[in-house]
């Protein structure tokens, strides 16, 4: 672009005061911030997470681990019939029990005490 040429919009912008331009920029940034806040929950809904159901755990020595074979039984720290821990990406969010869903195992949610979905929508 030739620097000696005049910009056709220059006449229109020349009539605007600096305060008017700053106010307009502030209005645009407020709208953008509001739109971004509103879009975050929708975007977050598409993030994949890993949901696991923890049956229990056992703390054993390396020697005991080396002795494990096909018929070994290892006692876990959970009682039979007790609700199992639901975890999302390793973080406990509630409790559930195992059910059969078609040909697969499923989980029936008993309670959700560590999942705060309201935080994502505010």
From TrEMBL:
Its main location: membrane. It is a peripheral membrane protein. Keywords: Cell membrane, Cell projection, Chemotaxis, Cilium, Flagellar rotation, Flagellum, Membrane. SUPFAM superfamilies: Surface presentation of antigens (SPOA). It is found in: Cell membrane. Residues 44-111 form the Flagellar motor switch protein FliN-like C-terminal domain. Transmembrane segments: none annotated. InterPro entries: FliN-like_C (IPR001543), FliN/MopA/SpaO (IPR051469), FliN_T3SS_HrcQb (IPR001172), SpoA-like_sf (IPR036429). The keyword Cell membrane applies. The keyword tRNA processing does not apply. Belongs to the FliN/MopA/SpaO family. This is Flagellar motor switch protein FliN.
